[in-house]
Design brief:
mainly alpha; 7 helices
Length: 162
Amino acid sequence: MKIGMAVLRLVVGLLFFGHGMQKLTGWFGGGGIQGTAAGFEGMGLKPGRDNAVAAGVSEAGGGALLAAGLATPLAATMISGAMGSAVYHVHAPNGPWVTKGGWEYNAVLTAAVFALAAAGPGELSLDHALGIETSGAGVALAALGAGLLGSAGVAARARALA
């Protein structure tokens, strides 16, 4: 189990870190703040720059925390919020299947971070090494709820500014 949790955290966390850095810096073929902001403005996420920074920080920061196994519930909250916003603003109208631009991949990632928050990051984590590991169904539900609440706040702000 030690290695399984570490591999799951590392793969999901590092890919989220990269995904966020695409938005923030343009690394890995991303649009950077300018390109992401323009794309967000086009989707009605105004102001685009603020939303681009928030999404990039949530993804890169949440991914880095998850990969390290540090503040795992916070990492799950950040990633769940970003995925909730992606589903709501981009993927929901397309149905579930990713082949049609749907939300299935976002749901898988949200389920993975939910499971990590519920099970805990494992022994090969900074949370465990520092003695601050928390986990359980309540922790996972709180992280998911907080992430989705943040996502709803982003949507409400975008509607108010539209």
